[in-house]
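New to this. Please check this fold:
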Amino acid sequence: MKEPVYEVFARKAREEPLRHIGYVNAMNGDLARVCAWKMYDEQNWFEMCVVPRSAILPVNLTGGPFAGEAYAALGDLIRAPGVGSYGGAEIAGKEGGQ
């Protein structure tokens, strides 16, 4: 059985944003926390978090580890012209005679 993947995020100080520092494979969240702490303990982290990869919702569906067949139809819908509050024309600079 393949172990789930957990993405690891950390920051060195309270005022810093969390940043992605790697990933671990673990059977559950408790093991993922221990594995992440042991694997990435080279820094004096203020905070470290693990997130199951399966809980991450992809925004850019054209590539990467989260762009699978399950998201293909959703990606086509998102990229369709006139969909959403902007429809894409505003972002591309095609509105208002531009």
Remarks:
- DSSP finds three helices and three strands in the chain.
